[in-house]
Design goal:
A hairpin with a 4-residue loop joins strand 12 and strand 13. The chain has 2 domains: about 290 residues, Beta-galactosidase, Chain A, domain 5; about 190 residues, no CATH class. It has 8 helices and 30 strands. The chain is α+β, with helices and mostly antiparallel strands. The protein is globular, with a radius of gyration of 25 Å.
Length: about 475
């Protein structure tokens, strides 16, 4: 049907029976849009039909989803929902009239191809959480090699998000490749049967829950591959996966374990499964970047071609020498390695500013030697990236109060007070809302500035322009 519009059809006897059991669905048909609904739920198929996302409710009205691909279940039925102001919006839900549409576009990309593809069937379902009295939207997209969904909750003012009830339930005979270091994501990937991932781990006589840092790769029994992750993370806490046994993993938020305050409309990141027949397809899938927003034109006026973004390869000194890779007497040799292997950059690892790695040896000046290295590298057409960590380590607010923070950088900006900012904040509700909106915009700009400086994911409004992990906590010398 043109424009992704839908036609209503009569419920079958089976559908009426399902309604009596508490499984209530609006019965729709949109074959052209990949959307089919009936007694078993609402099914959205990708453009070629290989991947299918099925949405259902259980007898208590709990929203559930599952994903099949290549004719087999890849994610078994599991709950979906977001918890706002103490209410799980995935419980006791009713559905409005869904709208589907096809998306077919390309956008600039880096690497072995100049453009990536966003080709999928998209669905928006108005939801009502009857118990909480909240209207919200479930948005889903299904590609030829993956499926994703996210939550959108309209509203104004400040609300408390306590996390999600989202879970991922894999086939028990799948094998997972995972890592559990969610502090700096530098853990070693290892394999486990999906139903044998431990729930807890003990180190230094302390037992703590296991958390998997995405992406998590699944190898299915038929030899195909899946990847669990998230996309379009902006003004939201980063997700980790907590094993619950029997190949089920719950979305949790370690950085904000008790929840977080959110101003204005809530839009969660996408919850994503990428599925491909082989590892080559997994590595080259466009699903994750296609789910991200285009680059913010204020931060990236030329999009992918913004002048200060230069993509390229760099040898990893840490993988060869560990922290000793930053030793001064090894840097020119590393530049030669980069040039000989066709790498555009050399990353000088953390510690180069300290006496430990020889940059200050024989009275050397650290910045003079950095300039010397840059000149040497420029002659060989290699760029230098200096990893610049916090010189005193990451300090807490308590350290600040105790006077342990020796260096504080203050950014001051003069903002004119326009006549629109003057008014009666106490008695004029319209003025108060306008002033709060203006103040919230300033706060968001501050968050984006901090994100640019420290690379924190929660507020990253950078979309497809930024390579993963690029320039985080680094100074770039051209």
């Amino acid at each position: 049907m043109a424009g992704g519009s839908l036609r209503r059809r009569q419920a079958t006897d089976a559908g009426a029976c399902a309604a009596r059991r508490g499984v209530v669905w609006l019965v729709l048909l949109a074959a052209a849009g990949g959307l089919v609904a009936g007694a078993r739920g609402l099914e959205l198929a990708g453009p070629n039909g290989a991947v299918r996302l099925l949405l259902t409710t259980d007898a208590d009205g709990r929203l559930q989803y599952s994903v099949s691909a290549g004719g087999q279940v890849r994610l078994a039925p599991a709950p979906a929902g977001i918890v706002v102001e103490g209410a799980d919006l995935g419980v006791d839900v009713s559905l409005g009239e869904a709208q589907s549409r096809r998306i077919s576009e390309t956008f600039p990309w880096r690497g072995h191809k100049a453009r990536a593809t966003n080709h999928c069937v998209a669905l928006e379902i108005p939801m009502r959480s009857k118990r909480a009295g909240v209207d919200w939207t479930l948005e889903a997209r299904v590609f030829n090699d993956g499926a994703a969904f996210r939550y959108r909750v309209p509203g104004t003012g400040s609300r408390w998000v306590a996390g999600e009830s989202t879970a991922f339930r894999l086939p028990r005979d799948a094998t997972l490749w995972l890592q559990t270091n969610t502090g700096d994501y530098e853990g070693e990937y290892h394999s486990r049967p999906a139903d044998q991932v431990p729930l807890e781990t003990t180190a230094n006589n302390k037992t703590r829950p296991v958390h998997l840092g995405p992406p998590v790769t699944a190898v299915y029994a038929d030899g195909t591959y899946g990847l669990l992750s998230e996309a379009a993370l902006f003004q939201y806490s980063g997700m980790t996966l907590r094993p619950e046994g029997n190949a089920r993993f719950r979305a949790v938020f370690e950085d904000d374990a008790k929840g977080w305050r959110h101003d204005g409309p809530i839009r969660s990141p996408w919850r994503v499964l990428v599925w491909t027949p082989d590892l080559n397809g997994l590595v080259n899938s466009d699903v994750l970047p296609a789910l991200c927003d285009p680059p913010d034109p204020e931060l990236f006026p030329d999009g992918m071609n913004t002048a200060w973004i230069r993509a390229g390869k760099a040898p990893c000194t840490w993988m060869v020498f560990g922290n000793d890779g930053a030793q001064w007497d090894r840097q020119k040799w590393w530049v030669d390695v980069a040039a000989a292997t066709g790498c555009e950059f050399l990353l000088v690892d953390a510690g180069w500013r300290t006496a430990r790695w020889g940059w200050l040896k024989d009275g050397g000046d650290v910045w003079a030697r950095a300039a010397e290295l840059c000149r040497y590298a420029a002659e060989r057409k290699v760029g230098i990236v200096l990893w610049h960590a916090y010189p005193e380590g990451r300090r807490s607010f308590w350290d600040f109060l105790c006077g342990r923070v020796k260096k504080i950088i203050v950014r001051i900006e003069t903002i004119p007070v326009s006549k629109e900012l003057l008014g009666d904040y106490i008695n004029d509700a319209s003025y108060r809302e306008s002033f709060q909106r203006w103040l919230n915009n300033l706060w968001e700009e501050k968050d984006m500035l901090l994100d640019m400086l420290i690379g924190k994911g929660k507020t990253a409004k950078i979309g497809r322009a930024r390579p993963v992990g690029a320039f985080t906590e680094t100074d770039v010398l051209q």
